[in-house]
């Protein structure tokens, strides 16, 4: 099997033998694919400088096993200028895709969704404040869940199928959806129970992230939705970001 000039982004790479790399790439026609880049770690290797994250590539490979052999790589554009927090957000997107996408499962939409997220992270509007980063990540997480078949219903209550009410309180169950919680709760009880106000849920249904409380609710819902899929193994990109920021209040990117 030989594939020529498939659009791709490098998601992750790891050493193999003395001078080679195994590179996880995101492609439209083959989804996530592992490629053996022979000699790519050698000092004079041209591939060494090209097989970098956030750089649009065209890759060619051949082979019959799951681990294909990379036989060519070309750049399609300049590397996106991610730095600081936007760079760590990019690593978070990459780790989500490596952890959640099955190998060799075609998903044509994912490459454009990923590229749009990277481009948004590189814009001054995203770098200007934490909320810009958060909106990009929350949108990407929702789109990824939808493509994987785990779309969240923000309009109807899971058990009764009744519409979400503005003044209702709801908890989120990953395999079910939003479930209404009856009775009066103090603010402390509300926060400890990880509940969401109906107006926040409806704002999320409309992709309205203008209010800080809604953006925070989106972060919590996405964490709850992704946790069963990610399992117990912690995300390394989240740890890197924790090490980077100066206070817990800044932890908005994961």
Outline of the structure:
The chain has 254 residues and is an alpha+beta fold. It has nine helices and eight strands.
Account of the 3D structure:
The protein is α+β, with helices and mostly antiparallel strands and 254 residues long. The protein folds into two domains: 2-75, OB fold (Dihydrolipoamide Acetyltransferase, E2P) (Beta Barrel); 81-254, Recombination protein O, C-terminal domain (de novo design (two linked rop proteins)), CATH 1.20.1440.120. The protein has nine helices and eight strands. The protein has helices at 46-50, 85-100, 108-121, 124-127, 130-147, 187-192, 198-205, 212-230, 236-244; strands at residues 2-16, 20-27, 31-37, 57-62, 68-75, 169-173, 177-180, 196-197. α3 packs antiparallel against α5 (130-147) and α7 (198-205) packs across α8 (212-230). The longest helix is centred in the last third of the chain and has 19 residues, at 212-230. It is elongated and about 65 Å long. The two termini are 38 Å apart. Mean pLDDT is 88; it is low at 245-254.
């Amino acid at each position: 099997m030989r594939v020529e000039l498939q659009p791709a982004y490098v998601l992750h790479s790891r050493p193999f033998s003395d001078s080679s790399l195994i590179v996880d790439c995101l492609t439209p026609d083959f989804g996530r694919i592992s490629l053996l880049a022979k000699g790519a770690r050698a000092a004079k290797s041209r591939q060494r400088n090209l097989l970098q994250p956030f750089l649009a590539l065209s890759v060619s490979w051949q082979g019959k096993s799951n681990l294909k052999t990379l036989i060519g790589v070309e750049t399609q554009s300049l590397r996106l200028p991610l730095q600081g927090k936007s760079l760590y957000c990019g690593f978070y997107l990459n780790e989500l895709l490596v952890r959640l996408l099955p190998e060799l499962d075609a998903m044509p939409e994912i490459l454009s969704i990923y590229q749009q997220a990277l481009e948004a992270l590189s814009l001054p509007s995203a770098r200007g404040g934490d909320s810009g980063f958060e909106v990009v990540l929350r949108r990407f997480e929702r789109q990824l869940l939808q493509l994987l078949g785990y779309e969240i219903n923000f309009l109807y209550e899971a058990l009764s199928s009744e519409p979400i009410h503005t003044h209702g309180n709801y908890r989120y169950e990953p395999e079910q959806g939003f479930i209404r919680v009856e009775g009066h709760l103090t603010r402390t009880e509300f926060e400890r129970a990880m509940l969401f106000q109906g107006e926040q849920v409806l704002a999320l249904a409309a992709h309205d992230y203008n209010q800080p409380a809604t953006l925070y609710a989106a972060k919590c819902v996405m964490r709850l939705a992704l946790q069963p899929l990610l399992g117990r193994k912690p995300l390394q990109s989240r740890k890197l970001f924790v090490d980077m920021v100066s206070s817990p209040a800044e932890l908005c990117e994961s």
